[in-house]
């Protein structure tokens, strides 16, 4: 697997991380990536009604903000949450966001 | 004082809140607004090297995301954090962000 470039842990900054999470599709991708580490991009995006080019842009923003690692695996790209780096750099940040994101997704679900 | 329009508490959504916080200037404005409720926009922006039109846009984004209330008070605009609404809607979200934002600001300070 060939890893794609990503920022070093010590250069992660809070505002880009929040910006990356500040979009409903990216927030959902992050929730899925955390729930299923090592999945492919396409598996994680399953069922989202978003054009491929937009998705690819979302993944890039998440990678450049330091939320995920991405590696080329043959014809696939595999995604790993940078949970350790983010927990070290921003302790206590992600847990409430993932929890609240999950709650909101359920609110939006079929009624 | 004449209040400016803002979203109702029950219509606050997580992604716009994170988006609003996902900019270093807006994050700093929010930190200041939380520390000094009822201050004027100009007092809160003191010392930030940002054009007035950009600041005005930042305040609008914060207001429309539901982070702050704003009211016209003569020639000033006064800012109040919507701490209660945000705490009700997104419990546990803001504390780590404000804490980590403060820590990062100190890192960036004069060395």
From TrEMBL, chains A, B:
GO molecular function: DNA-binding transcription factor activity
Pfam annotation, one family: HTH_20
Superkingdom of the organism of origin: Bacteria
Domain annotation HTH arsR-type: ranges: 16-95
Protein name as it appears in the record: Helix-turn-helix transcriptional regulator
Organism per entry: Actinomadura montaniterrae
